[in-house]
Design a protein that fits this description.
The chain has 390 residues and is of the alpha/beta class. It has 2 domains: 135 residues, Aspartate Aminotransferase, domain 1 (Alpha-Beta Complex), CATH 3.90.1150.10; 240 residues, Aspartate Aminotransferase, domain 2, CATH 3.40.640.10. Helices cover 44% and strands 15% of the residues. The strands form 3 sheets. It has a 7-stranded mixed beta sheet with strand order 2-8-7-6-5-3-4, sandwiched between helices. Strands 9-10-13-12 form a 4-stranded antiparallel beta sheet. Strand 9 and strand 10 form a beta hairpin. Helix 4 packs parallel to helix 12, helix 5 packs across helix 11 and helix 13 runs parallel beside helix 16. The chain binds 4'-deoxy-4'-aminopyridoxal-5'-phosphate and glutamine. Glutamine (GLN) binds next to loops. Glutamine binds next to loops. Keywords: Aminotransferase, Pyridoxal phosphate, Transferase. This is Aminotransferase class I/II-fold pyridoxal phosphate-dependent enzyme. GO terms for molecular function: kynurenine-oxoglutarate transaminase activity; pyridoxal phosphate binding. InterPro entries: Aminotransferase_I/II_large (IPR004839), Kynurenine-oxoglutarate_AT (IPR051326), PyrdxlP-dep_Trfase (IPR015424), PyrdxlP-dep_Trfase_major (IPR015421), PyrdxlP-dep_Trfase_small (IPR015422). Its cofactor is pyridoxal 5'-phosphate.
Amino acid sequence: YDHGAGVVLPTVYERTTAASIAAGAINLGQGFPDAEGPQWMRAAAAEAITSEAGPTNQYPPGIGLPALREAVAAHQQAHYGVELDPSEQVLFTTGATEGIAASILAFSEPGSEVVTFEPWYDSYGAMVGLAGAELRTVPLTAPDFRPDLAALRALVTERTSMILLNSPHNPTGALFTAAEITEIVEIARQAGAVVMSDEVYEHLVFDDAAHTPVLSVPGAEEVAVAVSSVGKSFSLTGWKVGWVTGSPDLVNRVRGVKQFLSFTSAPAYQWATALGLGDDRGFFAANQEQLQRTRDLVMSGLMEAGLRPYLPAAGYFILADVSPVTDKTAAEFAVELVERAGVGAIPVSALTLPSTQRDTGSALNGMLRFAFCKDDEVLDRAMSRLDQWI
Ligand code: PMP
Ligand code: GLN
């Protein structure tokens, strides 16, 4: 991770969005849905802002509105059977991003090591760098991107302060099994490290597979915090309502940092998110069904264009190997794709260590990430542009 460059440059997501707009391309780079989230949640947020319904527009409690903390606990109970005390085990954060940042700052000292799987979500590398810690990685490899737990065990030492787990995984779409997550927790326990589990894609799981929350596995209570948010589950990525859950002690340590990052944020969105978590009115199932369809549409489109896509079990991204159609790296190919084919995609190398980027043998340098959380008609157009240009 290049600390200086990471702080100064816009993220790869923003750069791809800007390049797509400049080229008039279809943006399958940054992950945000075309379709807006539930109308009734948006109406509830508007109502909370403009009427006497719900909270005032003044500072809500730093740990979050009580209604939101209770709804997060009730949602975990209803979906996973995980019991949480809303007053001590649920912390509101400004998006999962703040929960990730506050957890990394809370648990990783300068000079310590943080271990995660590679490729990763970009804020992990940036925050580990800002915390003065060092990122160590275990590569996930095609075609199924299963975590290599022997390699993880070998990398975790007494210097390890945290293991960053992300399941469902961005960008590979891998869904870690209960057995894998249990073993990761055990590895952390033995090393005296904390596990931060990023579960923002918890409701975007396909083909009747099931998400395993870290807090449902044995031993997790002592060492793990989980992070999730409204953005992916309800297609409301701009709302930035997130939450951290775990034992009172660990959550309190994250709170200690979080209070000096944002302190708090918009009560209306917390209020409306609580409503959705309490009863999603069928949104999760309908969204899952729609995404599974667009996943399959993009899988066949990418195959027809000659790329080698890998079927994701969850999330809203597909990784595809570009080496069947070009000798260029995926990063170079992405520039041509946006400018000449009119389709924006994320080179996976932007989500890896510099040493991996320099490694000509790494398959990750030949992969692009395509988002499929878009309207059918947009995806159809993008796929035929690829097919024609490649
Ligand atoms: N973690 C992962 C794996 C993500 O893909 C994202 C992007 N939504 C986030 C965290 C950030 O979530 P939020 O928008 O709630 O900050
Ligand atoms: N989570 C989204 C993605 O992975 C975008 C997040 C962002 O733009 N920071 O594409």
